[in-house]
């Protein structure tokens, strides 16, 4: 049997521009080496419509492929090598639950604008689109939050509580203007403990979701590094808790973290608080020039579900495979929410 890498390269050569393989920065080196386009969530979403390819294979997690399926042209088909590669944070917000919470929050006549992190299902983006809201990524969360705050009487940010608070801190939204919703909005408890009264004096309402990978990082690790290596740089992804973001030298999207490593001076030691595939790749890239280390070793198991053999299998079966699709009822409002973001951040 042919080596899966050779199979992939043969198919890439034969299909030429009619195939594009996209990869998120958290993919393994083996997969990244076989991609045509790499990027953070915002960059990859922006790329879709300008690609000539009719077949787009998305090496990342399902919400990314689904966003691509919402944004793609009618002649493009989106594929993902493993449909079970989901994002646990995205799974913490279910569309009907989001709608229910929005209805409760607006009962007293207040206009609450929903702003969903791109790490959410197309169905959630559709609800957000219907209610006049939009989407943000880690690269534009502050810009989009500033936009959302101007749309009505308050904002419901979902699903990531840390990105919500980090963005609110950056914009100076006072703590007493924020409300963290109870976790029963996530777990489906039929007795939803949300009332309009709870939020009527709040401008910023926060869904209690989080990324289990970035939740692993602790402030103690930063304190230990600061004590032992006072000259080391520490940068983190904004899915980390606010205490870590405040203690770090910088925070931002995966592309920000890559640029930080690139522009740091020769001889620098940089600790990066995010998924380890990206950090280890940067460590190899700058070996001998700069020392790059993970804040702690942490792998996103869902990102890791995409492997070279699965990519080969997807490419071999491209013509007969069922692409990632989104129903028209969901697609139109979800597209509206995504396009509002692309327009605000153009
Ligand atoms: P970026 O948009 O920064 O690449 O982040 C995506 C993600 O899932 C981080 O956990
Ligand atoms: Fe989701 Fe976290 Fe994995 Fe990113 S790292 S895809 S937020 S679980």
Along the chain, the helix and strand elements come as HEHEHEHEHEHEHEHEHHEHEHEHEHEHH
Q: Just give the CATH class of the largest domain.
A: Alpha Beta
* Assigned CATH architecture of the largest domain: 3-Layer(aba) Sandwich
CA-atom Rg in angstroms? 21 Å
Number of strands: 13
Molecular shape = globular
Strand fraction equals 15-25%
Instruction: Name the quaternary structure.
Output: single chain
- What would you give as the CATH superfamily of the largest domain? NadA-like
Largest sheet: 5 strands, parallel
Mean of residue pLDDT values: 96
* Overall domain count: 3
Molecules bound to protein: 1,3-dihydroxyacetonephosphate, iron/sulfur cluster
What share of the residues lie within helices? 40-55%
What's the tally of helices?
A: 16
End-to-end separation in angstroms reads 47 Å
């Amino acid at each position: 049997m042919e080596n899966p890498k050779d199979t992939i390269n043969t198919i890439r050569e034969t299909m030429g521009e009619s195939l594009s393989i996209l990869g998120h920065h958290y993919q393994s080196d083996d997969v990244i080496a076989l991609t045509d386009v790499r990027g953070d969530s915002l960059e990859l979403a922006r790329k879709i419509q300008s690609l000539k390819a009719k077949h787009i294979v998305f090496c990342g997690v399902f919400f990314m492929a689904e966003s691509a399926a919402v944004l793609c042209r009618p002649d493009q088909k989106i594929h993902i090598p493993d449909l079970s590669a989901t994002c646990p944070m995205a799974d913490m917000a279910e569309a009907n639950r989001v709608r229910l919470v929005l209805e409760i929050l607006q009962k007293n006549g207040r206009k609450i604008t929903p702003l969903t992190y791109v790490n959410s299902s197309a169905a959630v983006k559709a609800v957000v689109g219907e209610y006049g809201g939009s989407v943000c990524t880690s690269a534009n969360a502050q810009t989009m939050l500033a936009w959302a705050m101007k749309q009505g009487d308050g904002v419901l940010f979902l699903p990531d509580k840390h990105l919500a608070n980090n963005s609110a801190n950056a914009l100076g939204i006072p703590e007493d203007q924020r409300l963290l919703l109870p976790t029963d909005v996530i777990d489906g408890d039929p007795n939803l403990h949300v009332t309009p009264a709870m939020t009527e004096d709040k401008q910023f309402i926060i869904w209690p979701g989080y990324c289990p990978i970035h939740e692993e990082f602790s402030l103690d690790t930063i304190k230990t590094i600061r004590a032992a290596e006072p000259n080391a740089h520490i940068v983190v992804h904004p899915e980390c808790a606010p205490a870590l973001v405040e203690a770090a030298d910088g925070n931002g999207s995966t592309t920000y973290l890559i640029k930080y490593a690139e522009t740091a001076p020769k001889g620098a030691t940089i600790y990066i608080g995010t998924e380890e595939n990206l950090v280890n790749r940067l460590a190899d890239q700058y070996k001998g020039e700069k020392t790059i280390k993970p804040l702690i070793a942490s792998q996103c198991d869902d990102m890791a579900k995409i492997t070279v053999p699965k990519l080969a299998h997807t490419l071999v079966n491209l013509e007969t495979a069922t692409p990632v699709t989104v129903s028209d009822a969901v697609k139109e409002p979800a597209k509206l929410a995504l396009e509002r973001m692309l327009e605000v951040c153009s």
